[in-house]
Amino acid sequence: xxxxHAVYARGLVKRFGEKVALAGVxxxxxxxxxxxxxxxxxxxxxxxxxxxxxxSEATEGEATVAGFDVRTQGHEVRRxxxxxxQDATVDPLLTGRENLVMLGELHQMSRAEASTRAEQLLxxxxxxxxxxxxxxxxxxxxxxxxxxxxxxxxxxSVLFLDEPTTGLDxxxxxxxxxxxxxxxxxxxTVLLTxxxxxxxxxxxxxxxxxxxxxxxxRGDARTLKRELGGDxxxxxxxxxxxxxxxxxxxxxVTGAKVTVDAGIRSVVAAASNGVDTLxxxxxxxxxxxxxxxxxxxxxxxxxxxxxxLTNSPAYDEPVEASPEGVRS
Length: 328
Ligand SMILES: Nc1ncnc2c1ncn2[C@@H]1O[C@H](COP(=O)(O)OP(=O)(O)O)[C@@H](O)[C@H]1O
Ligand SMILES: [Mg+2]
Hints:
The chain is an alpha/beta fold. It is built from eleven helices and 14 strands. Helix content is 36%, strand content 26%. The strands form three sheets. Strands 6-7-8-3-9-10 form a six-stranded mixed β-sheet, with helices on both faces. The longest helix is centred in the middle third of the chain and has 16 residues, at 170-185.
């Protein structure tokens, strides 16, 4: 282990009885950088984070965080990390300020120190207006910002964020991304997990793609896309009801796997013959009388990269935000 890596993991295996949650993964996070563990539900993301945060022991393998062994030096590790778990950790019956002060006191600060730190964090996370309201009245986005603030109380050098924006609406997501930018600029090392490829691309220097407990690809977003290469043809329909037909046509013309995004009435597939494919697709759609709003050739998105790598979509169902904006 060295100072270059805030997180260093080798051969991590986690079994729950018969179930293999992690099948032997190696990865590292360079100090001062953001790394995303990207994978679908059940890939093993939370399991990996819990091991690194000393909440769970690996069945095999070893890991250090901030230079300390998670198995034998858990106390040293815990003093240096912040963890925003998938389920909110703050108390909904307390106000935002009360939550932060309480955490400061738990970290052995005096009442005065804890109050000062709380005020500072409320400002940084844009929660001053809501500081003295009960957390139960917060929106999902506000709650996630408070969660983040809570993890920062004791100035951790390594931050673990388990699906920080799952269940948030696009605006709240953007706000949270902005807050994370600020943390990173200040030198905090971040390991985050996400099911969203655009989130990994937006936030992370390095991306580790996992599926079923194994690492299936890694690199920055550009490298992952380049490795897959190839143009994609995208069709946006006027009428969502015609999506299944368009999907069939596109599959016929391209011979490739088709991705459907009902939310934006779009079908996408790899276009091995570039513009020729585009023309064929246009002709086929036109003969079938399917009205098209937009038709284009472009580089693959990370979503498409993921589908090509795993042969399965990154997530099966669109994520519905629960009233609290938090999903387990
Ligand atoms: N305590 C547990 N007991 C049994 N199986 C578990 C437990 N925790 C996680 N798993 C299983 O391990 C796999 C990985 O889970 P998890 O790390 O939570 O995935 P992710 O966070 O990527 O959605 C899943 O198949 C999950 O059902
Ligand atoms: Mg998880």
